[in-house]
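Please, structure for the following, as tokens.
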Amino acid sequence: MRKQDLNNIYNLLLISQNWLKYYFLVFIIYSFIGWIVESGYRTILEKGRFVNSGSLFGPFVPIYGFGATAILLIRLHVSSLAFPVQIIIFSVTATALEYLTSYILEKKFSLRFWDYSSYPLNINGRVCLLYSGFWALLSAIQIIYIQSFVDQFIKNIPVRLQIIIPVLFLVYVSLDIFYSTRLYLRFARVLLNLKGLKTKKISGEIRARLQNSHPLHEMKSFLRPLKIFPYLREEFSESILRFPGLSNIPYLKMLGKNIQDKIETLSFENNNTDMAEFKNICKDIIEHPEYQKLKNIKHHDKDIYTHNLKVAWISYLTAKKLNLHVKEMVRGALLHDFFFYDWRIKGAKDTFLPHGFTHPFVSRKNAEKFFGHLTPIERDIIMKHMWPLTVVPPRYSESFLVSLIDKFVASKELVQDVLYTNPHD
């Protein structure tokens, strides 16, 4: 073999090695970022009590690593396409990965870890349109905000560590997967036994087996899956409630109490004071004669007035929970859709460009016309609520959150409109 051929083979191997190192490090970093995002979100909502929401023991959520790596690999081949088209492709990829993960977990443990059957436009309960939208937003955030920092971080890692880190991570994650799998198999075995009981009479053998369980050890095993996956929590609770006799067994009684005490429901608490404050913030806007006209303009299954009020209420609760600018977030949410035409009717608007690109400008103009000066946050909420269609991302946390809340509310309204509209009307 010629020397030139040997050099070419060496260079090819070197490139392959660098390519593998890079994507392995990308996988590790995004698995860690995913853990931070999920655990941080849960910790904030559960009033500062730290919640490790990863399915493994360690600080990694591999599905984020796989998703981010897949997106970067696909982007090599679709970078010439328009950015919105890329986001759609990335969302489909992440949704397919979620479906595959659900299928593999169900085959392995004979249990479903999540179920979207109650969500409209779902596929076998494994994926649904709403969460595909969330994947689209996350992929846009990855490309626009995060990836450049990840690349710079990897460049700053010493060359020797770029080899050592993946090797150590591979050893560590293999052990973590082994012990996590053993935990979930133990959990699945008990839950399937409970679900498989056909009669309300509990046999002496089963009762004795449960009586002899070690509460502390078993509760730790159960609490983790129940804390991470609400659907498993529901399945477990339903299984116990079917058999009143089970709740009297000390082990399950302690477990049930522990679950009730330790696992908090992620819901917003509101009271009359909240409602009074919310109404006071909204009063001058919602009582204005021009704003009242929005009640007569259809928006999916509701009207624009009702849609804006829903977005504003959730924005109010979110701002209170996260200590953001409550008044500006609520007012921006109320004014984000402030236009006087039915966008579904051809020729109803004055511009030839699509409604999604133009109505933020119309809404801002109307807001300034009827309510005067807008604060920077209010203006940014109105102008950026259609992001990523706006290309330029939201500047403030309030703007970003309202854009998410608006998409959540609109997607639910759209699904209701599609499912429940009479085709003969």
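The beta strands are 122-123, 127-128, 298-299, 302-303. The longest strand covers residues 122-123.
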